[in-house]
Each structure stands twice: as structure tokens, then as C-alpha cells.
Amino acid sequence: MARNNIYLTLTGMLEKMLSTMKRGALLPPEQELAERFGVSKPTLRRALADLAERNLIEKRNGVGNVVGGSARVIQRELIFLCHDVVFFAESIKRFSAVAAESNYLCSIVPLCGDADTQTRILATALARNPAGLVIYADPGMRNPDAARLPADCGIPVLYLIRLPEELDGNLLTFENADGIIGIVQRFYAEGCRRFALYGGGPVNPLAAVEREQGFREGLRRCRLKVRRGLVCGRESSQEDRASFFEHFRDPEMRPDAVCCLNDACAGEFLRQIRKMGLDVSGVRLSGFDHAPLTKFLPHELLTVEPPMAELGECAAAMLIRQIENPHFGFIRKKLASRLIVVTPE
Fold first, then answer.
1. CB-CB contact of 297 with 266 (8 Å)
2. If pLDDT is split at 50, 70 and 90, which confidence band does 1 have?
3. By three-state DSSP, how is residue 27 classified?
4. pTM reported for the whole predicted model
């Protein structure tokens, strides 16, 4: 790494350390700081001089460096607020790497709890006055006041997957409905004509709506209609669910393709089929998300692999671009997903 980059990164790390300390607190000795951050004393002193020039620290004779005061302590911190850190793990990893390459520090904050808790988490993050924010909000929460907090803060914000209702802003997303459209068209090209949609499992409620729309649009493009009784979701009654699975008893009349809202739904579909003692070996099956569980399913699965690594890299690049060019307008970008065939091991 270039020496100038070491200095910028060190400055950011020192800023982050100062944000956790009270005004007037004594900093550790220079030798200890140099060893902690793995830098030389000249590099450390250059960074400390920069902090002192910005009144973030004060040099007191016979005492050492003490924390000063500033309304904006961490000037190069990017905060990633994420409701689902497991699903976005690869995105967070790549986001942090790209941020570091551009001499920014990344803080990951889980956006969890009830609506009030999430609002407090968001307000606390904004109070840190970071350089920028990335937000993947809880799709189950509807809190207009919380949604407006980032819009009114004056800090560059990038939303992932979807924007809050009635708000404009920077948005980075990937093919969601389009992924299901691609699955329907692929199955159709392979000769499938009787399609079913299954969503009886854990699924993001907003993603479920978008993917069902994609299923219906895919059928429309193939000049097919949604068949009565062949759409089963989490809101379906027990009677409708039972009727849905009855369609698979007759090999001549059963659907030849089942599109599931995600991979977990595909696993739930196969579990119910096995419980009923039915054979669907000739039925095409699809999911979404390319989850690790897919390799354990006893049935070939066509699934959608979201571009999670690319999502993290693009999120960092877009946010930094907005930070360093505040006069630029909002950016909206959609990344392509790809179809993956997973066969039983």
C-alpha cells in the first residue's frame, strides 16, 4: 500500500477511536498507538498533526494528546445499516474492502428490533455524522418518520434493493421480478406449459410480491394464463393449500413446472410432496437466492443467484462517488442476476 494511503487510513482509524472517547480524555502514548496501528512514529505524528489542526485533539505540554471537540469527528466513516446481515454477508465483505481501498472506514450496524428500536438505531447512526450511509431496511416495517430521517440529514445515503415509499434517493438493486420472468421463459422454451407458483415458506414479503408479479409477467410473455388453483402463497388457506397439492396426484394433469418464491419455499414444497407420497421427478422446479441448502435438495433446482459481491462493490463505489461529488444527482442502478442449475449430490 502506498505510504499516503497508510496515512489516510490511519487518520480514519484515529478518528474512529476518538468517536468513542469523551472530550478531555487522554490518548494513549505515541509508542503504544504506533504499535496498535502498525505504523511508524513519523506516520503517526503526521496523522496526529492533522487531527490537531482540525481541533479533534489538543497537545498539552507535560500531559500528552487529549480529545478535543468537533461536531464532525469521523469524516471518513461509512455506515452499513442492514436488516439481514446473513443474506448480505458477501455484499458487506466486498463493501468494506472497496471502502478501505478508498481510505474509508466501514461500520456494520444490524438494523433489528421493533419499529421504535430500528428508529433509534438509525438516529444514533446519523448522530455520528458519518461520511455516508448504506441502508437495507426491514421490509416488514412501515415507519414514515424513520424513513424520512436519512432524507433530512444532509448525509449522502444509498438504499439497497428498494426505496422507502414516497422518497427519492440513490438506489442500488438487482433483478428480482426479472429473475422469475427468466425462469418462466426458460421452462417454456424447454416445453413446459402448465405452471404453478408456490410460496409456502419463509420469504421477504416485499420480494414475494415482486416475484409473484414476475411470475405473472413471465406467463403473459409466453402467452399463457395463470391457472386457477395453481398459485399457493403464505396467505393461502389450508383448504386452498390442500387443493394445490392435489393437482400433483394425476401425472397427466399435474403442473410440469413449479416456480417457488425462494429456495426455502422449494424445500418446503418437496417436503410436502414427500409427505403425501407423490412423485414429481418429471416436474421442473425453481427457487431464488441460490441458498446453501439447495445442494441438499433431492430434486434438480433452477435458481436465481443474486450478484451479492458485485452489489457490495457497486454500493461502495456509488456512495463514495456521491460523497466526493455532492452536486451530482441521485443514481439508480440495477444489477443482473443469473440462473443456476443445482443438481442433487
1. yes
2. very low
3. coil
4. 0.76
Asked if 87 and 114 touch (Cβ cutoff 8 Å), the reply is: no
Domains and CATH numbers, the chain: 3-67 (1.10.10.10), 77-168+308-335 (3.40.50.2300), 177-305 (3.40.50.2300)
| Segment 238-282, tens digit of pLDDT | 999 999 999 999 888 899 999 999 999 999 999 999 999 999 989
Distance in angstroms (rounded) separating the CA atoms of residues 60 and 33: 17
**Cα–Cα nearest to 342, from 282, 285, 258, 280:** 285
CA-wise closest residue to 56 among 65, 45, 43 = 65
Phi, psi of 221 (to 5 degrees): -65, -30
Q: What are phi and psi of 306, to 5 degrees?
A: -65, 150
Give the residue from 132, 121, 123, 136 showing the smallest Cα distance to 86. 136
- Which tops the pLDDT comparison, 328 or 161? 161
- Helical (H) or strand (E) element with 77: strand 77-82
* pLDDT grade for 71, boundaries at 50, 70 and 90: very low
pLDDT of 36 strictly over 50? yes
For 277, residues 6+ apart whose C-beta sits below 8 A from its C-beta are none
Q: Record the cell numbers describing residue 115, joined without a space.
A: 419499529
Would you state the cell numbers that stand for residue 158, as one nine-digit string?
A: 444509498
* Main-chain phi, psi angles of 331, to 5 degrees: -115, 140
